[in-house]
């Protein structure tokens, strides 16, 4: 894992311990932790006692031979990595090289408060990561990041997106956040796309990185088809005129087709579908699957809907989201990180609780790429699965509708209060019968029920096929939790044909 080269050994050890404890969600015996992390108990205790990354976020403890972790309600592993990135001397160096023009080794060493020998070792270590992940590197005469310009920008887009939270603007006065936001909002107003605050920030961060690099004279040099279309649509707009004047006054560069292409990169690709005002590249029906064509994803969803028997009320939006994910690839909002991939946590939930749905979606997406298998990286596959699942309107509700109602018998000592509560609370998914007879008759309990919920010991009969849930105290909330777990399991195990 080359990302460890961005941190000291001590920092990385602490991050490994935090990640392990967070993932387990329960305390871990010290010998198991020592074995997993290949280190001594003394080292781990030092991580806990001298923790840097949990300060203000939560706390690690070591008690009774067990390690555990707790977080503040609003915090999690993402905030830990965010803090770690800002503490990393390697990433501080990369940030300096972004904002400052060419520097000497001595100047950079002074900025980082390290010796020249330490700086050279730091550069060598960081270059291992940069070369492997982005095929770029730091040279030392003068000190600067070199390589393909697109990849350099991509590194910094991911870095600034992950290291700073939603309320922070990392570019200071170099890029006026308000004016850049005005330009983004103006262009979006000409499309049929609705974006949220998270996407708005992502585009601004991307635009900020690209604009600073462009103004320093670094260019990708690719003309994007939507740039001129946007300029034509905005021609004569008072708002656009004002923004263009501010842009030229600050950067002495015209806000023209080249500038829009450089600043917004693949978000100006003419392969994207933004609405009726924008011409599309696909003029004829292509019946061979091509992941870069919208029609392919519409056909994909048609077949998926037919196979799974689960409605897709927003099919066009789903298709456009999947298509956009392919076109944007590493510039997609779900890929805006260097270290912590939070979509994996969501996918892990689906793998565990809705495994057949997950497998069906994954297999179907792979089929779309059968003619271009090399185009489907593991990161793109995960992103497409995640995009589909979070874009699918009323997914859980529609999966639930494919289930026949679960037949539930409630046997309780009280006067049907729990059964009545359950009818109101989960009656949409359970066909609930409240047992009201004065005696237990075997034939009554051997009827065709899926579950029996009771606070009474009933006869042991091999003829009773239902799952029996016993409760010493038949409290509605406890019963509801147990039944919800059962329902989620049924939904997850449902083999949708």
From TrEMBL:
Annotated M protein trans-acting positive regulator (MGA) HTH domain residues: 8-64
InterPro entries tied to this protein: BglG_antiterminators, HTH_Mga_DNA-bd_dom, Mga_HTH, Mga_PRD_dom, WH-like_DNA-bd_sf
Domain Mga helix-turn-helix: 76-160
Keyword field contains NAD: no
One Pfam family per UniProt: PRD_Mga
Start and end residues of each M protein trans-acting positive regulator (MGA) PRD domain: 177-394
Alphabetical keyword list: Transcription, Transcription regulation
PANTHER family in the record: CRYPTIC BETA-GLUCOSIDE BGL OPERON ANTITERMINATOR (PTHR30185), TRANSCRIPTIONAL REGULATOR MTLR (PTHR30185:SF18)
Official protein name in the record: Putative Mga-like regulatory protein
Species of provenance: Streptococcus dysgalactiae subsp. dysgalactiae
Lineage: Bacteria, Bacillati, Bacillota, Bacilli, Lactobacillales
């Amino acid at each position: 894992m080359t990302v460890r080269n961005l941190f000291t050994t001590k920092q990385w050890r602490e991050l490994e311990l935090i990640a392990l404890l967070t993932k387990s969600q329960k305390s871990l015996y010290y010998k198991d932790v020592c074995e997993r992390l290949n280190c001594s108990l003394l080292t781990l205790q030092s991580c806990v006692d001298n923790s840097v990354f949990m300060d203000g976020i939560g706390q690690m403890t070591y008690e009774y031979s067990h390690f555990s972790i707790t977080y503040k309600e609003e915090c999690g592993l993402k905030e830990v990595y965010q803090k770690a990135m800002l503490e990393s001397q390697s990433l501080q160096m990369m940030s300096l090289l972004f904002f400052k023009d060419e520097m000497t080794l001595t100047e950079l060493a002074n900025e980082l408060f390290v010796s020249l020998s330490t700086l050279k070792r730091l550069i060598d270590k960081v270059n291992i990561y940069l070369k492997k992940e982005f095929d770029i590197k730091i040279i030392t005469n003068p000190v600067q990041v070199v390589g393909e310009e697109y990849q350099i920008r991509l590194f910094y887009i991911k870095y600034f997106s992950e290291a700073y939270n939603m309320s922070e603007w990392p570019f200071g006065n170099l890029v006026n956040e308000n004016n850049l936001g005005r330009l983004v909002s103006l262009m979006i107003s000409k499309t049929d796309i609705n974006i949220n605050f998270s996407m708005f920030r992502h585009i601004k961060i991307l635009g900020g990185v690209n604009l600073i690099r462009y103004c320093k004279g670094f260019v990708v040099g690719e003309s994007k088809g939507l740039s001129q279309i946007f300029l034509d649509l905005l021609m004569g707009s008072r708002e656009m005129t004002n923004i263009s004047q501010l842009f030229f006054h600050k950067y002495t560069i015209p806000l023209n087709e080249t500038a829009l292409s450089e600043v917004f990169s693949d978000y100006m690709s003419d392969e994207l579908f933004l609405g009726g005002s924008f011409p599309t590249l696909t003029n004829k029906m292509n019946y061979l699957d091509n992941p870069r064509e919208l029609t392919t994803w519409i056909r994909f969803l048609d077949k998926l809907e037919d196979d799974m028997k689960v409605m897709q009320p927003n099919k066009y939006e789903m298709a456009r989201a999947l298509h956009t994910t392919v076109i944007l690839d590493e510039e997609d909002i779900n890929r805006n990180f260097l270290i912590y991939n939070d979509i994996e946590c969501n996918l892990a939930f689906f793998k565990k609780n809705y495994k057949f749905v997950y497998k069906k979606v994954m297999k179907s997406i792979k089929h779309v790429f059968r003619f271009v298998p090399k185009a489907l990286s593991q990161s793109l596959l995960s992103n497409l699965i995640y995009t589909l699942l979070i874009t699918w309107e009323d997914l859980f509700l529609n999966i639930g509708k494919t289930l026949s109602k679960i037949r539930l018998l409630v046997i309780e000592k009280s006067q049907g209060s729990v059964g009545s509560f359950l009818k109101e609370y989960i009656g949409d998914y359970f066909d609930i019968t409240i047992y009201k007879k004065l005696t237990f008759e075997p034939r009554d309990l051997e009827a065709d029920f899926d579950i029996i919920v009771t606070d009474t010991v009933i006869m042991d009969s091999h003829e009773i096929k239902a799952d029996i849930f016993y409760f010493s105290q038949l409290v509605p909330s406890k019963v509801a939790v147990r039944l919800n777990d059962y329902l989620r399991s049924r939904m997850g195990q449902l083999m949708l044909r």
